[in-house]
## 1
Amino acid sequence: MTVSQNNTAGEFQIDINSIQNRHNSSDKHNNNQQHWSEFLAKPDLNSDKSKITILQGGLTAAQDKLFEATLISLGYNCKKLDVPDNDSFHHGKEYGNRGQCNPTYFTVGNLIKHLCKLRDEEGLSSETIVKNYIFLTAGGCGPCRFGMYITEYRKALRDAGFNGFRVISFQNDGGLDQSENNSTIIFNLPFFMAVLRAVVVGDILNVIATRMRPYEIEPGSTDKAIEKSLSIVYDAIKSKKSIFMALIRCRKVLKKVALNYNQAKPKVIIMGEFWAITTEGDGNYHLQRFLEEEGAECNISIVTNRALHNLWENKFNLSSTMMLEDNQLPEGIKFDFETPKKLLILNIAEKGIKSFFAICASLTGLKDYKLSNMNKLGKISGQYYPHELQGGEGHLEVAYLIDAVEKNKSHMVISIKPFGCMPSSGVSDGVQSLVTAQYPQANFLAVETSGDGAVNAQSRIQMALFKARKKAQDEYEDSNNLSLPTAQHNFLQYPKKSKKYACTAANKTRQFAI
């Protein structure tokens, strides 16, 4: 490009012809370049179904175990992976790209660690592993790095010596029929119904565990009862027996654990990025266990609520589309039946999930627990967080904090997420500063994970817990007008929450007084 100055007028002149020539030269050069394309492994064939083992993992330990039984009941060979640990993280860092969020390193590294164990310790060749194993995971898109997970899996597997290893995904928002021809795993309605069953039952047992473990009289008794209950449900799913009868048996097992609810413990709500709140290992610094060791009771976020959130987003998007002025119907059609039909299906799905959860919770003995009301959460968060801004947990983190403060549901709220998680750290936490300014009584703490730095994160949690303990103790003293004897309870006697108290011991005292 030539630029010259007109000395008389003091103006600049640009040689347009030189710009055009340079542009044409660049186009010619680019046309000779080969663009990058991702290598996709050969399709998995139905004929290989009996010889292929499906590896899976990524939810809570309980749900991964029940998911394994679910796939076995559907006729697949399945093996769940262990909970990702720091060794998994190191494998992920070694073979993965730079700049990924730590769930990528933990989950990708966990798969590679398992495959390396098969190769180096059990003597299987890389070719045998690639031929006889596949990995099943959830996929999707959004404003974060989640959409690149599958590519990251394939890149790391290739560099680790497992080129061609098949990673198969189903979209977490892809509907109930994602089956394809020549696919080993058929993603259809029966598949997702079976997965939903495992998710719901796993959620119920996880909630019961968090209600029991902080108050157990004999340390470790809750874990033993939960493990036995999981085995009962696992066997029932695997052998295609009644899940309802299995849950009744679980209730009898869990009822035997001796508890003492007359202990003032702060209640902590855990929310944040999906993987960080579901993993139970080094990926979130063993957050649930750490809080319990520090004398707190956890109120965990469950996977079922995430499913309800996905349904709510779909209904919101459909309703918004119907209101568009340029939403013109095709010629000859006077009324759009398709959108109301989709809304009806989504409403039926929502009712079905809630009903199944309620039945399973009742049979297991989980009392005074309600799934999140997505419409109410959307309403209270609307003025702070636009619902059109979707991805990750969306507006839920903002709504959960407001709801917890307004209804006095907890003494502390922790939002945990990977370092640099855009939907959670970049958006939700930015909004939370306004929320905490309007609700100064909120005890809110945002924690970012990075695969290391556990001491720093746990130290911050301990400081926030000091304030939460004081609140719980004040509630207990305010409610304790009676001299209560040391009591022995079971999980069926978990007290109903009152409007005044969040502390379980305070609610138990109030219940005794009434």
## 2
Amino acid sequence: MVFLAKTSTSGEWKAVSSAISTLVEEATFEASLEGITFRAMDPSHVALVDLLWPKSAFEKYECDKPFKFTVKMEDFAKLIKRADTKDNIEITTSDEMLVLRIVDGYKREFLLHLIESTYGPTPLPKLSFNVRATVAERAFERMLIDISAVSDHVTIDASKDRLVFTGKSDIGSGSVTLEKATQDVLELEVKEDSKATYNIEYLSGMIKATGSASDTVALEYSNKMPIRLELKLSDLGGRIHFYLAPRIEEK
């Protein structure tokens, strides 16, 4: 079997590693002639991560037949963190081992034991979205920090010309408004005014996981429905989708 996935920087692998380890302890990657994919739901069944990494997004990619490989994300993340931003990363497999090479003038090679997967297949939720917005990553992260000062949850209220984020608790309330056609809102399409509430800790973990890999966050949702966040891996392609179930208000 022939398999090689090479990137010219470590940022993509770090983003993938961090994004997946935010939700699950192990990852079963599926490699094919088209690229690498991964999908899994967290143990509480509140959040889901879906990776699409096409071969065109790699500096070099070879795979002569589809196969799966599973790793412990904590161990994988430790090795990826050994790389600096501009280091080349090469991933291959050999004799039940994952081979990780870090090249930056001299070559470092690590072997990581592959494991048996304990997870079954994860289907994607069938959703239709009434709101799609693309906002600056820094603005979205700042909003979450602001709202977290007064609440553990954020309510997103979308209309045709603005996004309003609110939070409230026993100590008080807060709101952040992002207007359409400003530097922080690159896109806002609203088929129907929509409002839903989500856990800030989950959202923050998702945004922080990708680090500097993505400058923007695309969010899609509908009234009282799950939200989908999309973060790009690089300009060459590849993306990570996060799905998060809404908070159901108690009557």
